[in-house]
Specification:
- This is Translation initiation factor 2.
- It comes from Fuscovulum ytuae.
- With about 45 residues, this protein is an all-beta fold.
- The protein has one domain.
- About 0% of the residues lie in helices and about 55% in strands.
- It contains no helices and four strands.
- A four-stranded antiparallel β-barrel has the order 1-2-3-4.
Length: about 45
């Protein structure tokens, strides 16, 4: 599944979900690299 995570206040990464950590962070893989961050909530259209 493709997910977007926040690495900092202005940096986000989108990649394939590899795993989820106990503190709520998600691990995603982009090409050969893996990134850990908090998931971005999906936008709900009204």
């Amino acid at each position: 599944m493709l997910r977007t995570i926040m690495l900092g206040s202005c940096v986000s990464v989108q990649g394939i979900v590899v795993g989820q950590l106990a503190d709520g962070k998600i691990v995603v893989k982009v090409d050969e690299k893996t990134f850990v961050g908090y998931p971005v909530a999906p936008l709900r259209a009204a």
